[in-house]
Amino acid sequence: MKKIFTRPKSLKTTPFHYCPGCGHSLLHRIIGEVIDEMNLQERIIGVPPAGCAVLAYNYFDIDMGEASHGRGAAVATGLKRVLPDRVVFTYQGDGDIAAIGTAETIHAAVRGENITTIFVNNGVYGMTGGQMAPTTVLGQNTTTSPGGRKEKRDGFPINLSEMLAIAKGSAYIERTAVSSPAHILKTKKAIAKALHTQLKGYGFSLVEVLSPCPTNWKMSPADACRWIEEVMTISYPLGVLKEITGDKKDAH
What we know:
Layout: H1 23-37, E1 44-47, E2 63-64, H2 72-82, E3 87-93, H3 94-100, H4 102-111, E4 116-121, E5 124-125, E6 131-132, H5 151-154, H6 160-166, E7 170-177, H7 181-199, E8 204-210, H8 214-217, H9 221-235, E9 239-243
Parallel strand pairs: 1-2, 1-3, 3-4, 4-8, 7-8
Antiparallel strand pairs: 5-6, 7-9
């Protein structure tokens, strides 16, 4: 019998600790598949965040570092500058990258650091109990915004990808989701394109992924996926925000 589906080589056999329906499990598999298909297992370095994915180094069978809360872009910058032949990516949640990590991320994009970031946006602080995050959409209930986020009290959600697309050093910015099979396939293509952008030496690349958090959203996994498509994408439209290509020197 022909085997048509198997675990990516770049993922260990360690069971995930994530909640049922969480998007992190899907994203780990997608990233593992891309690493395998691009034959990068021996030259890629991942930088996990603080937050739900802090243990990502237990799941990926690749070289992994670790960063203090929000400092993923700074750690990745150091790794890439010391080891320019390596492919370096950060994996960060919205609380990590869009709150404490905004300075490091924005300045890495402005400098055009040749690194890639996977930005997982589920709109809440997932690991610490579902508090309101910078990306919590207006009207969204969290443990610290009962009754929904209100702009006059809480401010507006931050559109970090749009901000990074303005930076002159950013080369590729796209927002995707993992709320349906079609969106999962688009997310995989976007991550591959972001890594190709780095390999070509074009500059900073980022893929923002809208991801379900059924536990903290108090929804079933199916309802959480529907909520992404019906509500979350209004504040965070899917699509390519910036893409630069050209005849820059190939970084291989």
